[in-house]
Amino acid sequence: MNERIVHIGVLTWSALVETVRRKDLYVVWMLSIFSLGAGAVLASTGVRGIETFLRDVTLTIINFLSTAVCIWLAARQMPEELSRRTLFPLLARPVRRFDVLLGKFLAVWLLSSGALLVLAGTGWLALLLFKAAIGPIFWQYLLLRALSFGPIAAMTMALSLVLSGPATVVLSGLLTLFGSMFARTLAQTIRGSDALAQAPLKLLYFVLPHLDLFDLSQKAAYNYPPVDAWVVGVLSLYALAYVTVFLGLGEIRFRRMAV
Amino acid sequence: MAAIETRDLRITYRQGWRGETRLAVNGLNLRVEPGETVGFIGPNGAGKSSTIKALMGFLEPAGGEVRVLGEPAGSPAARRRLGFLPEVTLYYPWLTPIETLWMYGRLAGLDNGTVRSQSLELLEKVGLKGRERDRLKGFSKGMLQRVGIAQSLLGDPKLLILDEVSSGLDPLGRKELRDLMLEQKQKGVTIFFSSHELTEVAQLCDRVVLVNRGQVRDERRVDELLKELRRYWVRFTCVGEPPLPAERKDGAWEAEFPRLEEWRCALDLLKAPRATLLDAGEREGTLEDYFVNRVTQN
Question: How many angstroms separate the CA atoms of B162 and B159, rounded?
Answer without folding.
Answer: 10
